[in-house]
Every structure is written in C-alpha cells, then in structure tokens.
Amino acid sequence: MRSPALRHVLTHLITPLLMCLGMGLAYMGAFVHPEPNHLPVAVVGAGPKAKVFAQTIKDTAGDKLDVRTVPTRTEAVDLLKARTVTGAYVPSTRTPELLVASAASDMGATAVEKVFTPVAAEEGLPLKVTDVAEPVADDPTGQGLFFLLIAVSIGSYASVAALGAAGGTLPMRIRALLALGVSAVVGSIGALLAGPVFHLAQHDLAGIWGMAWLYSAGILLIGVGLHTFLKRWTTLTMMVLFVMLNFTSSGGLFRPELQNGFFGTLHAFWNGAGFVEGARSLLYFGSDGLSRNVWTLVVWLLAGLAVTAIAAAYERTKAAQAQAPAPVSAPAASVAVPESPAELGEEAEEETQETVGV
C-alpha cells in the first residue's frame, strides 16, 4: 500500500472491528439464548413418595435440572441461602409452595417458577411462591450489582491507557503505585454509586469498597504490565479479558446454571464473578461464601503484581542494552533511531482515545 496515511488508518481500524466481532460473539453467545443447564433444585419431603416425585421431574427435564430431595423446609431454605439450589418445591395437597432467593438471581427464580408452575397446575392447585432472600427495594431485579461491575470495570481498564501509554516514561514502580492509587479512587466511586447514590448497598459499604478496590487494582496492574509488551494492542486485550469474557461470566444477569458450559466454567474463577458474587454474599446472604470470592480477587491482584514485576524486569533489561556502547565497527545504518517525544506523545494520545472511546 503506497499511502502511509491510509495504511495507518486501516491498521488502527483492526482494533474496533475485532472488538465488534468479539463483543457480538461474547454477549450474544452468553445472553441471547439462556436456558437451564443442570439447574439445581430441591424437592422437600422424606420417604419413597418424595424420591419418586423428584425422579419424575428429573426424567422429564433431563440435563436441564439437577434434582435432590431434602427432608424439611428449613433445610431447603438453608440451601437457598447458601446458593446451593436455585429453587425448592414443597408439595402439598392444598397449596404447594416454591421457595426462591431472587437476590441470588432474579432470572434463576423466574426459571424455576416456569418449571414448577406446570407441576402444580397438573394437580389443579395454585402455586405459592415465597422469596426467602429479596433484593433491596431500590434494586428490585437484583441486577444493580452487575451495572456497578460495569462502571468499576470501565474506570479500571480505561485508566490503563493513561498509565501505560501517557505514563510510559515513568519507572514501572511509579506506574504500579499510581495503579494502586487509581484503583482506590475507582473503588471509592463504586462505593459512592452503590451506597449514597443508588442505595444498592444499605450496609457493609466499607466491604463493597474493599472488593471494588481489589477488583480494580487487579485489572490496572495487569493492564499496566501488559502494556510494556503489547503497546496499542493492550486495548483489545483488556476488552477481551475484562469485558467480553468478564461481564458475560459474572453471573450478574444470568448465573452459570442458565448459560452454556464455557461461561459457567469461567464463572468459577473470573474476577468479575468474584466481585458480583462477593457483593451478593455480603449484602444478602450473611457473608456466606464471601471468603472464597475475596480470595478470587486477591489471586487476580497477585497475578497483576506478577505481570508488572515481569514487565519491570524486561524494561530494565532493555534500558541496560540501550545504554551499552555500540560496537565501533557497526555500520551507521544499523543504529536504531529513537522515536521523538512528539511521536511517542501522538501514539499515547491515539491509544488513550481508542480506549476511552469504547
């Protein structure tokens, strides 16, 4: 291609076009066709009759449901609050009852209601639905935490451009410290949105801030470290890691039991799922399972520290090589001409605009 300007433009169009393809595949693959996939449910009752009833439901549903029996309603409620099951059916000759916990997943509660309403209808009985863990009135669908995740994520990965590109002349230790500071600010914004602004978190706001900081710091450190190696391709990489794969596997809209196996597997260890499920544990389920989710965020933070340490070592090696005297016999044509500050600044500005504009 003869025109350098045209080649420059076409090269920079690769990133948004790949984002278009990746976002379409990720979001449509995760959200367009939700259906139960080994959705865990329980039937309350003891004895052969309850077991036969549970097996009949399992045989009818196939792989869509995983059905167990529990002897008492109290035990079923405990399983719901531990998010071990999505719904529990209590048979009755008068008014059968379905227990759900919509704070864990509004979509999950809707799914099990669709499963058991016809079961009660076959007996000619109305189904009573009891929600044992409702979200707050300001977040009736329980999906506010997912949108909080989006806000904190954007503040995190968009800041990578400023720290990685515009701050590229700073030592890595300074960029890493700035990343930790920025993540504290992002966490504070997240806590402000979750608490005083939208009232998603009506208690334990300090815990929400702590998880938001851990989550943001992991993203920022990974991004700053990767920028040393990927440069302007960092934008696309961050989008893949912390948008395409992250939002879709977080469980904020659909828990893994309503998704295919790929996103369900990611849910077990991805950082977005750690944040959303950790916030749910803290706000609605008495911190049940919170430590596991916090450890998920800590592991991602440690991964970020490892990436920045590797990048720092690489940059030190490059700097030492650049300062080494060139051999006298080396021809002038082989000596690399460093980029001017103007060129570096232009590249940083392009990358910043490319990232923030997503």
What is the string of SSEs from the N terminus onward? HEHEHEEHEHHHHHHHHH
Would you identify the regions where 5 or more consecutive residues have pLDDT less than 50?
332-339
How is the biggest beta sheet arranged?
5 strands, mixed
Structural class: alpha/beta
Per DSSP, the total helix count is: 13
- Provide the residue-averaged pLDDT: 88
Using the alpha-carbon principal axes, give the shape.
Answer: elongated
How much helix, percentage-wise, in residues?
55-70%
Head-to-tail CA distance between termini: 28 Å
Give the number of DSSP strands. 5
Calculate Rg over CA atoms.
Answer: 26 Å
Strand coverage percent: 5-15%
Q: How are the strands ordered across the major sheet?
A: 2-1-3-4-5
Structure, briefly:
With 358 residues, the chain is α/β, with parallel strands linked by helices.
Give a description of the structure.
This protein is an alpha/beta fold. It is built from 13 helices and 5 strands. The chain has helices at residues 4-31, 48-61, 73-81, 106-122, 144-166, 172-197, 205-230, 234-244, 246-249, 261-267, 271-284, 290-323, 341-356, and strands at 39-44, 65-70, 87-90, 97-100, 128-131. The protein has a 5-stranded mixed β-sheet, sandwiched between helices. The longest helix has 34 residues, at 290-323.
Give keywords:
5-stranded mixed sheet; alpha/beta
Task: List the topology elements.
Layout: H1 4-31, E1 39-44, H2 48-61, E2 65-70, H3 73-81, E3 87-90, E4 97-100, H4 106-122, E5 128-131, H5 144-166, H6 172-197, H7 205-230, H8 234-244, H9 246-249, H10 261-267, H11 271-284, H12 290-323, H13 341-356
Parallel strand pairs: 1-2, 1-3, 4-5
Antiparallel strand pairs: 3-4
Helix pairs in contact: 1-8, 5-6, 5-7, 5-8, 5-13, 6-7, 7-11, 7-12, 11-12
